[in-house]
UniProtKB/TrEMBL annotation:
This is Universal stress protein. Belongs to the universal stress protein A family. Residues 1-146 form the UspA domain. It holds the Pfam family Usp. Gene3D superfamilies: HUPs. It comes from the Bacteria. CDD domains: USP-like (cd00293). InterPro entries: Rossmann-like_a/b/a_fold, Universal_stress_UspA, UspA.
Length: 283
């Protein structure tokens, strides 16, 4: 059974991500943890110094969270009556990222599925701050679903790689699981900069051949493009349903997403994006 975490702020964007998760894992036995983390907006030094209980504020915010979670699960069950799926709710007075981290460890979460932006997401921003912080700090595969994305089977998966990772099960099993379920083809995209692959890179590339031996896959190599160009150009010629990258601290993933230019990334990501950590939490 898979354990899947669904953070929600009760926005349309977060519910759209929930719908995607329910459809993606429809044939698998899953426990979905629907999580709402809340901190009152006036949570500041005055709030800390004065006991909020005397105003009943904490209770009001908690009740709102509990009601929102209950309504969300009712809505899910009315639209997706799947005997493979069970739901548990978590209302937490906590910072969202800290709560996600604790829940991932405590519930042995296999995937986090979340929207790319929250209620205040501006169109020009590729990922909201919570999504970026989850990518950076949570050692669990994170599937980010763009606003208004309508589910489509992930038949074509794009997997850019610089072959700088010593691939192991924890890196590739999430891809293999999805590709096996949907009979997907994995397109492995390498961007070269005029240099031959090193021996280590060749070895890692060979590992991918072995891991994907029972999965339809193709290797692609392009040169004289940056990674954002390469992804955009590939999408123009091939209909891609899922983008997958491994968050390796020393790979192009970090250069692409964690620099100060994160909101000016040179492409508009309009497909689900699965980020796999290079290191997992110990379970």
């Amino acid at each position: 059974m898979k354990n899947i975490l669904l953070p929600t702020d009760f926005s349309d964007n977060s519910y759209n991500a929930i719908k995607y998760a329910l459809k993606l894992f429809k044939s698998e036995r899953c426990t979905f943890y629907v999580l709402n983390a809340y901190i009152p907006k006036i949570y500041n030094i005055e709030y800390v110094l004065v006991n909020p209980a005397q105003f009943g504020l904490a209770d009001v915010v908690k009740d709102k969270s509990l009601i929102g979670l209950e309504d969300t699960v009712k809505k899910i069950k009315s639209k997706f009556n799947n005997p493979n799926h069970q739901f548990k709710t978590i209302a937490a007075f906590n910072n969202l990222i800290l709560e996600i981290k604790e829940t991932v460890e405590e519930k042995k979460i296999d995937y986090i599925v979340m929207g790319t932006k929250g209620t205040t997401g501006a169109k020009e921003i590729l990922f909201g701050s919570n999504t970026v912080q989850t990518f950076k700090n949570i050692k669990c595969p994170v599937l980010a679903i763009p606003s208004n994305f309508v589910f489509e089977s992930p038949l074509e998966i794009l997997f850019p790689s610089d072959y700088e990772i010593n691939f192991q099960d924890k890196h590739l099993q999430p891809i293999i699981d999805i590709a096996s379920t949907y009979h997907s083809r994995v397109n492995i995209l390498n961007v070269s900069y005029g240099y031959d692959l090193t021996k280590a890179q060749e070895k890692n590339r060979l590992k991918l051949e072995i891991y994907f031996k029972n999965i339809a896959h193709l290797f692609h190599s392009v040169s004289n493009q940056d990674i954002t160009q390469a992804i955009s150009n590939f999408q123009l010629k091939t209909k891609i349903n899922l983008l997958v990258m491994i968050n390796n601290k020393h790979s192009f993933f970090e250069n692409l997403f964690f620099k100060s230019t994160i909101n000016q990334i040179g492409f508009h990501l309009n497909i689900p994006f699965l980020v796999i950590p290079s290191i997992k939490n110990k379970k």
